[in-house]
Specification:
24 strands; about 450 residues; homotetramer
């Protein structure tokens, strides 16, 4: 991983408006995907439905690279869905894997945008293999397509087929789909990945992974899609099917609050920025240290650093300048030193940190390589002591529900003690958020539990 | 159709050499595709097999647009196949339809390059639909993939699966495929589309739609693949399976000689240029006219014009200058007048034609629009009389075996008499090659019959 | 202007190392330009000198769009200069205007990268016109080239020619140049635009508009180039010519501290972030208001907001989520509403601001359109009162020294009272930094005065 | 040189119509440049004049690569000029050298498209250097611009300035230019390079290097611009200035007939195809040989081969298949063998040549490398004897008037006897067109002499 972070795999977006004209919905989808770009920067795409015919455009690249005014103008319709993605960790670039996946099958076209990860892919693939299935990619999405297509053969409607498919598909999936006549949205019964919807003043119904995408198209948030819920939009009417709901309390990914989601998103009622600030406050209480200043690693470490400062009384200072263009450099760490890559991105403010005992707050640690470089840079800038505080517990177990950490080999916390890590990265002290504090970072979340398997190994499935 | 011509749908190429190093075979495939570019200019691609793993690159565009030195350098392997294509007439651009099609299925990867057209696609699709099949394109190739994949479940080897699939697939198919360990080449029992192979001095085995692709990689032609034959190359050994051969005399497409193939290709032992010259000679005998000069419509009308001149004694003259860059203009006829498009491409040589009675030889007529414009241009250049001679019989029936004329609505000869056409296009006289002369344009063809369904409506299947 | 900000016109970079191998300096220049990208996002380029021959690459676009690994690899040399730029306000896109400008003249090649604005361009052009000069652009840089080239005819060295040219050129210019054998760096006698240099551990001498570019290539800052100074590097030796120094106290642009420079840059000894924080503190003292929270407009308003909070005791809160990908959208405000463009970029955190009396701190106001939209968005998010505080005095006069505000028509403060502006943008109160506080935001600046003409109309030239 | 041919350096085009609307003239210029593409394939561009303001678009690449529908649509105006070019032999790619060159000078804008080569560039440059001139390129065109700009300072109109400049500029130049209010066209007093004009039915006046460009836009040829003539178009009126005419008989480049011009162009009244055919006939008479067939090297050798056949009675046969896509391969001869490059392009028709004694007709020989490969390929195809006949005299002297052969080192004929060349390339016999036959290949040319300096070393200047 370029910057030593765990990656969310995808963002999904959908918009429906029977009265939409021209490329209006394609442009709204573009805006929505721009707002979800942080959830997947490797590839993106959109599909529109015009008079029951679905067309699409997708490619490797950022949203503003894949789409242009001219491209969008070709996608007219009254429904549209969009997707942005990372590739799964370790896999090669799968050229045909950009989404939405648009297929034909016995009942016509189906477009699928998927955020998540199916656990029983191999079992399902074996079943479909027996029927002579062929695959163009190694993605879960193609397995989802087969599963729904197969169910649709015996079920009378696409939403019933999806409902049945949800009994077969195990794992994480927030799905936004289009059939020739409907938009169908579904969230797995555990609700691992977020999914919400809202409405625009012009009547458009909007679905998205995060509320920031609703904000971007000026839609008003209504509620989160419930774990297990299927929502169908047809002829402008919204129907909810809850037959797969309530199987469990829900297991929403806690990491959305720690790192994945944008701080200005509200996930299940909880403002993400607030979670991060709370984590900082809790850290300050559980792992205090005598220091002169608190600084955060931009961007996601900043709210926690502010929280740490608030709770500890140690002044918060902007410790780093950030090059907001650095994210796009084509120079990969293996072409120049990894250190140069970090240096291009972050620049310690010597004046503020020199001679200081510093509390450095970051959100999460994967391999620790970037933390090590940042600490080295701080010492070169004259910092006296570096006390690293992580606003999440040690990341020890792979995630099978939609992120890119699929083996423990990437995780320093799996086989190192905190003391060992501290020495390895060169910090004067190191502390993590306590597991028992996790519930306290999401006080506003109601009616749904959370998944902390990456910290505990206690997998819901 | 831009230039009022019937289109071949594809060209295929394959090369195998266990000792090949680096991107050598990818570059050979590039050369082979360049030589086959006339068979398909809309999209192209290649797939290579390196240590049983197949990777690919394909896109919309000409061979030299889709590939670059840099792209080719990434495709190392000891087997490679390539493909260039047109889209089917009337269909929209099918984005995922570029070939080779590379799939995964129960037995691993399979790469397929296909030239032809499957007749019973709808019947087969209905069967696969029942099994829950999903499709990414509307191409026959995906149906071929399903058919072979399904057979492979019960057959012990890929070549046996292909042999069985050939009982199921009806229509035209010249296939070049790669499994993880083999190259498999097959030609339908009618042998509609051409397919031949040869060998390079370095031991490489080369398969291609036309001999010009063998020439381009300096391979020596060995023979044409027989109708119904399956050839498998593994561990450097070539095996021929002829169990599907000999079901009929073969029905090779006669239009390959008239227009599709390059004049310097030898198809089934017959030099294409010779066929065209013969057609001209036969035309001169059957449809003589008193005239001052014979001119041909570049490029494919030239050999027939020369033949006409040889047989009639009327001097052959280069009647048109040709802009060899015009083929690539992005300006479509609907953006400027169709006439301007023709004018950009062809330029009558006034000095040679002014005041003359001209025999104008062209290869085939679809809608007649271009002929009409050319005749108008000739009259503007001072031509006294235009006697149009077509080196093929009237094109009256759609082709279902691998070209882009699938309905009669595009064919002027279907519902017009020769006199009507002559008046419509403004010629002083018009004659076509006689059906009975067709066998005489391919005197060197042995052991295989030919398909003339587009002229007679007498379909082999 | 897309986001209603005044624009710096350029960033310059240069690096010299006689022992540099291959494309090392080109890659360092790439890193330097990445760090200076905020100073000009419309076009960029670099030139290298290999064995006295200068070659270049430049184009419209961001640094990471114009350059690729492959492009950089073609630029080998032991000297390199780079440039990034905006176009001048109001001018059309001047295709040949990307820099470095590389010319030939009587004495060979000369490459010029320029940040600034020449005041007496018209007078000089009239003189050169008389000699039959021709121009490829409307840029000052071409006039600089003529001026230096002309002086070089009578002066014995390029540095002497530059010294003479500095008597002729009036205005702002920070220049980094290469002759076949030397790197020549010059800053106008007023020192309007910043320019500094440092050294890398490997002996490379590095010049740049801002220290962040030194940081990006791991160079250690030595000092700022003095107003009027010419520095020449040849055979690895640095020589300073100060004959044009000391003519006045220097008039460095104060706006570099307010908005242009990156907060982590140190300009003339003054950390930019500190200036902004101080401005906020000063604002709080001079223009206090009763409020619940202080928020800043990202990014440049944040440090001032923190300063305001520090001095006022009103808690600082992150009021906006920011889409860090929004900067690159191809959708221009005239294609969708300007409001949608702002919404894509900034997202109020309703939870933090709802029901609150808010101090909103921003850095500077040009037309006020964006402030108006932001205030509207805050009110929609439930804010009770908005007290806008600008961390700079009212911008009333055009700048002729290297920015893109060349007429007063773009400036709301020129012909509106503060009360009128307050009403126009919909704030509850509005206050600007006091002119008399300006010196207090740059306490660490020594030995150079500053230019505040844009606030006072009191132009140094 | 990729294909061992001497290169024309440029094609020029201009069109004027006060009533033109929108991008009509830009599109006509596109068509004209497409027709002139053979004269320069490295770079191209156009400039339009709308209400006295000139804008332009130019780049490296073929006409259909540099322009698109979208690009053309931005260039509205009532005058337009276009240019396509090769780079000068041996020079590096000069990035800013694409034309038209658009400059500003004392009297406003001037756009220049130039075909030719100025002999006294160094002398003129020395003069301008003294005035402090700066140059962006190494092109003659910039020197032309300086010369005209300088004259314009003292002359009352642009056409008078051009008339004076023609006394100063020595060498070859066919110029099409635009000032803010006029189109100005000039041909050097020797008339080295062709230039003609015509009119469209809609009143547009069209200028072009060759008549094929008039044909492409459906303009009717009026006459060739006379050597030394200046034509000015303003307010729809055409004025001819002949004060520089008649200084000599004219020295039009004979190589236009041999290789440069398209066969369907008529240059100074002479159809180019006719010249080539005549050359073949003359060759047959002067250098007969006993043989079975005559074949030509496509494309420019074909008419001469036909002529040879006509005069000798030896039957003409199409000896080669040609890949009409091969011209654009990105694979350069140094990346694969030069032989593979030729093989991709030309394919001997074994059936026609095997066992035959062949007269092989080509147009001209530079280094002879391609002839050598072609002869080798013919022998591999079973040819018994190869008698090479060149339809031009031995090319022995560099050309200084607008082609890319500027040193004798590239020319095999300079220091080899015919016998030596014959052995080197492996022919059984070799003969060139006789110098004394040159006048006979242009019987229709009136009122102008020709330049044969490349054959005789007898330079007009």
């Amino acid at each position: 991983m370029y910057d030593d972070k765990v990656r969310e795999e995808c963002g999904v977006f959908g918009i429906y408006n029977t009265n939409a004209e021209g490329d209006y919905l394609a442009k709204q989808t573009y805006l929505g995907l721009m707002a979800l770009q942080h959830r997947g920067q490797e590839a993106c795409g959109l599909a529109v439905n015009l008079n029951q015919e679905i067309t699409f455009h997708k490619n490797m690249g950022l949203v503003d690279e894949v789409f242009s005014e001219e491209v969008l103008s070709r996608f007219k319709g009254h429904m549209a869905i969009g997707h942005c993605r990372y590739s799964t960790a370790g896999s090669k670039k799968d050229k045909d894997a950009a989404q939405p996946l648009v297929i034909n099958y016995a009942k016509g076209q189906l477009a699928i945008a998927h955020n998540g990860n199916i656990r029983n892919v191999l079992e399902l693939r074996a079943i479909y293999d027996e029927k002579g299935a062929i695959y163009r990619t190694h993605t879960d999405t193609e397995i989802i397509a087969y599963t729904i297509a197969k169910q649709r053969l015996s079920e009378g409607s696409i939403e019933k087929a999806v409902a049945k498919a949800m009994h077969i598909l195990e794992g994480a999936y927030s799905l936004i789909m289009m059939s020739p006549s409907k938009m169908i949205v579904a969230r797995d019964p555990f609700g691992f990945r977020p999914l919400c919807f809202g409405r625009k003043a012009d009547g458009s119904v909007v679905f998205a992974s995060e509320t920031v995408a609703l904000d971007a198209v000026d839609a008003v948030y209504e509620r989160d899609v419930m774990p297990g819920e299927i929502i169908t939009v047809q002829h402008g009417e919204i129907k909810s099917n809850t037959e797969n709901c309530g199987q469990n309390g829900g297991k929403m990914c806690i990491f959305e609050y720690i790192y994945f989601a944008r701080p200005d998103s509200t996930v299940q009622g909880q403002l993400v920025n607030d979670s991060r600030r709370s984590a900082g406050q809790l850290l300050a209480k559980a792992s205090p240290v005598e220091a002169d200043i608190v600084i955060g690693v931009p961007d996601s470490g900043i709210p926690s650093a502010i929280g740490y400062s608030e709770a500890s009384g140690i002044p918060y200072v902007e410790g780093f300048g950030k090059n907001r263009y650095a994210g796009r450099t084509f120079i990969r760490p293996d072409q120049m030193s990894r250190e140069a890559a970090v240096r291009l991105k972050l620049n310690p403010l010597r004046k503020y940190v020199e001679g200081k005992r510093v509390v450095l707050v970051d959100d999460s640690m994967v391999r620790g390589t970037t933390n090590k470089i940042i600490i080295k840079m701080l010492r070169e800038a004259g910092v006296k002591e570096v006390h690293l505080r992580m606003s999440s517990p040690p990341y020890k177990y792979p995630c099978y529900y939609g992120t890119d950490v699929s083996t423990t080999s990437q995780l320093i916390a799996t086989d190192h003690t905190i003391a060992e890590i501290c020495e390895e990265i060169g910090a004067d002290s190191l502390a993590f958020l306590q597991l028992s504090d996790l519930p306290h970072i999401i006080p506003d979340v109601k009616d749904i539990g959370y998944c902390e398997a990456c910290f505990t190994g206690d997998y819901p499935i």
